[in-house]
Amino acid sequence: MPASQRYGGQPARFPRQSPDGAYPAGRAGSHLVVVVPSFILTVYTSHFITRHKESALVKGVFAGLRPVVVGLIASAALLLMNSANFGEETAEVLKSVAICGGAFALVYFAKLHPIIVILIAGLAGFLLYMPF
Question: pTM for the full model?
Fold first, then answer.
């Protein structure tokens, strides 16, 4: 007799199994295995950098990382500049470029906090792209 008939049409569940079929201890264990090593490395690295921040080696590493970070951000920006994000019509592209340029100007020249600029850009995008 199949299991579905033995248990009233429901698949068999083990005693500590949650309704979605997962084991709570397995969930917790897998989360710990993923999170704890990264957490330990982050805490140790932070402690090491704080302890040796005046070292020439640490200063040299950070001086070398600055251009890398700028390059990664520029690369991400270039990858996101496509028709799916900016539109295909000229008017849509101009609106998107205006929002992008305005956001840059607000952060760089007006020294506004980036979160406020993100909120302003979101509102501007909503007002420019919503057909009223």
Answer: 0.52
